[in-house]
Specification:
Layout (H helix, E strand, L loop, with lengths): L6 H4 L9 H9 L1 E5 L3 H13 L3 E5 L24 H12 L4 E5 L8 H4 L5 E4 L6 H13 L4 E7 L2 E7 L6 H5 L7 H12 L25 H20 L9 E6 L4 E6 L7 H14 L4
């Protein structure tokens, strides 16, 4: 039996947790997601099922077999296909009326303004080690007063930060300008995301190598990130619910049954963060 698409029917089970008017509001907003692989793919699927139907997405990569443990678009049929193309098809399969603008070459200085055009919120889904693109995007979001949520899959959970217009900026929090190498930037990103150091207690020794840009990820972590990030997209768009905003953050780890909230008033310039930075750099640099 052929069934035609109907927006209200497709997302009717959201009603009760959101009002019909709020669902209409969600349907009219545009979300930018840089990265269509691990967390990016799950963000797209989750937000599409929430009823968001306007997206700007970017990724220059293709699906490979090693993506299978965590990426929403990773199937045998997708191997060798562009991630943006596949995930745009997934979104359109959920909602044929969706408006998906693709940036198949990734994000750089020449297209970042177009990527963020008419965007209501940016969801950071770049690879952990894509620091240059991340710095560029966060800087532009600050200039354009675009809220940002970033959810990193660490262990079997999520480390989460939210950057709002007029609050502490990404650069003031992470302090990448003080770094002398990519390895130092990776270490600062790690301690800034998860200052409470959850998850590292069960990390297998030798699998993280900051110098080589290598680290593990789990499907549980990625899906947890999508849940938390999508919830914040909802709260920011609908302007309801309490927000935890940088320099405050939180990390949830399902394996440890723990939720830890953090407050780092000076960002990575805080003396305790500097100690953690040196610990992480010594522990994970040249780990391979």
């Amino acid at each position: 039996m052929e069934v035609g698409f109907n927006y209200k029917a497709a997302f009717s089970r959201n009603i009760g947790w959101v009002t019909e008017h709020e669902q209409e509001t969600l349907s009219s907003k545009r979300v930018a997601i840089a990265g269509a692989g691990g967390v990016g793919g799950e963000h797209l699927v989750t937000l599409s099922r929430l009823g968001i139907q306007k997206f700007n997405i970017s990724d220059f990569d293709e699906f490979e077999i090693h993506n299978f443990n965590r990426q929403a678009g990773a199937f045998m049929s997708a191997i060798g296909r562009a991630k943006c193309e596949v995930m745009a098809e997934v979104v359109k399969d959920i909602n044929p009326n969706a408006d998906v603008i693709r940036f198949d070459d990734g994000i750089n200085a020449s297209n970042v303004d177009e990527f963020l055009k008419d965007v209501d919120i940016y969801v950071d889904s770049l690879d952990f080690f894509a620091i240059d693109a991340r710095i560029l995007l966060f800087k532009k979001c600050k200039e354009k007063s675009i809220p940002v949520v970033t959810a990193a899959p660490i262990g079997m959970g999520c480390a989460f930060l939210c950057f709002m217009p007029g609050q502490m900026s990404f650069e003031k929090y992470f302090r990448f300008n003080d770094c002398k190498s990519d390895t130092e930037r990776y270490a600062k990103f790690m301690v800034g995301l998860a200052p409470k150091f959850l998850s590292y207690s069960y990390l297998i020794k030798g699998v993280v190598d900051l110098d080589a840009g290598k680290g593990p990820s789990t499907p549980m972590g990625v899906k947890t990130c999508a849940s938390i990030a999508a919830t914040y997209v909802l709260k920011i768009i609908l302007k309801r619910g309490k927000l935890i905003v940088a320099p405050h953050g939180m990390q949830f780890d399902a394996y440890l049954n723990k939720l830890a909230k953090s407050y780092v008033p000076l960002g990575n310039k805080h003396p305790l963060q500097l100690l953690k930075f040196h610990f992480i750099k010594n522990k994970f640099a040249k780990a391979g």
